[in-house]
Amino acid sequence: MGFREVSVSEVREVLRGWLDGAGLRTVAERAGVDRKTARRYVQAAQEAGLDPAAGWDALDDGLVGQVVVAVRPVRPNGHGRAWEALLAHEEQIRAWVAGDGKDAKPLSIVKIEELLARQGTVVPYRTLHRFATERCGYRAKESTVRVNDGEPGAELQVDFGQMGYLTDQDGRRRKVHALIFTAVYSRHMFVWLTHAQTLAAVIAGCEAAWAFFGGVFKVIVPDNLKPVVTDADAVNPRLSQGWLDYAQHAGFVTDPARVRRPKDKPRVERTVQYVRGNFWAGESFTDLADAQVAASRWCAQRAGMRIHGTIQARPIEVFLQAEAPVLLPAPDAYDVPIFARVKVHRDFHVEVAKSLYSLPEQYLGQHLDVRADSELVKLYQRGALVKTHPRQRPGGRSTDPADLPEHQASYALRDLARLIGTCAGHGANIGIYAERILDDPLPWTRMRAVYRLLGLVRRYGPDPVEQACDRALQLDVISVTKIASMLERATEHTTPTLPTATAATTTRFARQPTEFMSRTTRTANSWTTPASRGTALAIHGTTVATEPVNAATNGTTALSLIPGSAREAIAREDAPTPRNPQKESTR
After folding, report:
1. DSSP assignment letter at 78
2. DSSP state, residue 401
3. Alpha-carbon 48 to chain mean position
4. What sections of 136-275 are H helices per DSSP?
5. pLDDT of residue 396
6. Confidence of residue 408 (pLDDT cuts 50, 70, 90)
7. Out of 49, 408, 417, 432, which residue is the most buried by the measure of CB atoms under 10 Å away?
């Protein structure tokens, strides 16, 4: 037999009609119950001491409660016989509900009801469902405790939610996320749209939120975003270095929600669905910037002006009245830095954002922490600042000459002035000689010669090299090889012997002055003959000397030019006369 719970209002209505003198049939019709049920209520009231002549004052809560207990069927522990029958199968039902996670899967209540019926236990479905829920862990639900909203301006809850897809102007279809900020006290919200979930995107959303709210909330309750939380511990979560740096800049405290605990930030959890369904759904935007303008307008005019179901007020009005005056001042614009851990390589440099920065030799092979913003790159070792460089573009390099070995710094940096200064430090002439070596359209191609010159200084000492450079500069000889030869032969102090003029006496290969004398003129139009026979002319068209030689001038002569055709005539005259064989035989 089924069980129907007795209603207090039902009992009170039956007794009220009976006290007014109405019959049981009329009273039952008014209360909507059976006439037999109405008779049972009246009999139980009379047994509890109700007098028909008593008025309304006699129907107090105590009397009605006694009637309800009297007419309710006897149910041990508040349950009927079907419940008692299920107690014998509690362990089996618990196993069916849970399953073992391998082959046996959790069963539904309908299947459990069928299996119990095969065993001879037939119970109503609703009774089996209540039994499995209350005693066997079927779809167990935790209780919910409402947390106080706290003070105005104290807490801001943040969550990421996926909105949908947006096609850019270049035709790419990209996913759009919404970073939603909800004030706990006023429920006023701000929506920031982005394509990425990086630290830069989160910080950009926070900067836009401070501008929208006009200030900063004291406590931020974010989700466990990877850019924000690196170790999601329930008690001591570890925040990323970049987020801590920004929190110090803005002045707020971070209290992350626990993993898979949406109740830690309930004010913003339901807001994600509201934004997706009320703002994004059914809308069309040209690009992300257009969507962001629409989102800011929607937050101020639509979401902020609605009557919120919990606070029963307009969020923007509550915010402006209670929270806006107590917010922290908005910070200056934040230069989003890059945080990294790098290793100092053997080339005395570290790589940060595809750029190179130098460090001294004592840090080779060590790992350093880096903070790089748009202006400076700072390198730390165990929290101590060890080097600062100006930020370089990708592919650039910032090298401090003091970080490199002294004997390699000039060559690595192609610092010609430093190299010349090093040479001048060993001697003035050495410096001048190095400067003369580097006097070239491509001076860095001559740097090795200067380093060889410095090697000679280390080998022979600065004084001999200084003397050798002095002699070479006097003779205008710029060659490190010559300097090395002078030092090897120890001739840097010797005055070189210069070539002298030829002596007046005739040497083996010297020509006689008469060879250059002019031939006597035969006729007015004839040319002179060569001074000696057998002298061959080297090239056709050259000239022959025709002026007499002055022996007193050490072999120097004054020369006159003779045309090439005349020279051929002279050659014919000087040629020997051919012999006649017949004449020779007669002789």
Report:
1. G
2. G
3. 82
4. 199-213, 241-250, 266-275
5. 92
6. low
7. 432
Give the pLDDT confidence of 50-87 residue by residue, as tens digits: 888 777 777 888 888 888 888 876 665 667 788 889 99
Can you list the pairs that 552-560 forms with residues at least 24 positions away whose Cβ atoms lie under 8 Å?
A: 554/501, 554/502, 554/504, 555/502, 555/504, 555/510, 555/513, 557/513, 557/516, 559/516, 560/518
Residue type, 176: V
515 is a domain residue = no
Q: Is the domain of 437 the same as that of 376?
A: no
Show which of 405, 422, 445 is a domain's final residue.
405
- Among 234, 228, 226, 230, which residue's Cα sits nearest to residue 257? 234
Rounded-to-integer distance, Cα 137 and Cα 131, Å: 9
Residue for token digits 């997706």?
A: 276
d(CA 21, CA 211): 74
- Residue 181: helix, strand or coil by DSSP? strand
- What gap in Å lies between CA 250 and CA 262, rounded to an integer? 26
Mean per-residue pLDDT, 301-316: 94
Q: Are the C-beta atoms of 272 and 180 separated by less than 8 Å?
A: yes
Print the domain residue range for 441.
414-493
* Of residues 212, 252, 247, 211, the one with CA closest to residue 227: 247
Distance between CA atoms of residues 96 and 107, nearest Å: 6
pLDDT at 377: 95
Query: Length of the chain in residues, anyone?
Result: 587
Give how many domains the chain has, as a whole number.
5
Are the C-beta atoms of residues 188 and 323 closer than 8 Å to each other?
yes
